[in-house]
Specification:
Blueprint (H helix, E strand, L loop, with lengths): L7 E6 L2 E6 L7 H4 L5 E6 H6 L1 H4 L4 E4 L8 H13 L7 E6 L1 H13 L5 E6 L2 H7 L4 E6 L2 E8 L4 E3 L10 H18 L1 H9 L2 H6 L1 H21 L14 H10 L4 H19 L4 H13 L10 H10 L3 E2 L2 E9 L2 E8 H14 L1
Parallel strand pairs: 2-9, 3-4, 3-5, 5-6, 6-9
Antiparallel strand pairs: 1-2, 7-8, 10-11, 11-12
Helix pairs in contact: 5-6, 6-7, 6-10, 7-8, 7-10, 7-12, 11-12, 11-14, 12-13, 12-15, 14-15
This protein binds adenosine-5'-diphosphate and zinc ion.
Amino acid sequence: MAFYYRMDKLLTFPSGLVKYMFQSSFEQIWETLDKNHVILITDENIFRYYKPLFKDHKTLLVNPGEGAKEISTIERLSKELVSLEATRKTILVGVGGGVITDITGFLASVYMRGISFGFVPTTLLGMVDAAAGGKNGVNLGFNKNMLGTINQPDFILYDTSFLSTLSDDEWSNGFAEIIKYACIFDEALYNELHKNSITTYKNDGDALAMLIERCVDWKNKTVMEDEHEKGVRKLLNFGHTAAHAIEQLYEIPHGKAVGIGMIIASMISVSVTGLEKSITEDIKRLLSLYHLPVKFKFDPKRAMELLRMDKKRNEQLMDYILLDKPGKATVHSLPFEVIENALNAYESEN
Ligand code: ADP
Ligand code: ZN
């Protein structure tokens, strides 16, 4: 049996220092923060599930779901901060999934030109991905994360007991990002995931905690090297190029779209990097194991139109993250035609 010891990690990023508090409990935030200076931000679902945690603390509420990630929410919350007489000494703490950490980070970065903030991610996706890395943004209509900042929180506290109320769908969404880290960085994890399942990690708190920390470590190693995504951080977009187009066209959860995006990227890899053909099937098996769809009907033509408008566009070529093998990814500049062929090939297989 594995023994897991709690250890805080203090990490230095170009834009700031972050204390990562793994294996912690929510209440520990009050050991270091003055309750009079903290304003919590959460969504209505989390507030309902965990009411006692918010009792006697100033709390701002947001509607659950991606729809709240809009500039109008930032405006409303800013006004509420003014009403609560929030000052430069105020610390905003976002308690929630990716939507809440994005909103909190953005709001804290612009309120009075920037105040302190921290995160307590409550979804698996938030823990392994959204809360880490320092990107905070809101959507502008259909354009995802169009307005945002790169600014690190002061701390991120991990309390996996929040996951006890997470829906099965949300567990799967988190695993899409975990599979992503395995594919791009970590062959041993890739093999481990094949042997396990969501139930394995749900039933083994130490294994889950180690899995989360391992993914966060991969992300941080990458972000410390390249916070502004000029180079190596691009690798974290594996599966995300096609996923973003699909998400803009259809209301499908991020993790599911990323899963489909990873299949498409691995199909392109077979012809460009020489990835073994069997790996595409292998990735599909892995996605199914974690209850993520491998088939999805979408319009390749419309997806392609969106990709051409994508912010990462560079004339007729586009950066695309491909796999050399499980655990090793590389950035390639691909002609649009190659991507279009892959979207059509995926579509005709389904
Ligand atoms: P993410 O981007 O991390 O998937 P969201 O912020 O969109 O997360 O949250 C997804 C959904 O899960 C929302 O409806 C939110 O209210 C809900 N949620 C977040 N954390 C929990 C939790 N610990 N238990 C139950 N539901 C949760
Ligand atoms: Zn993602």
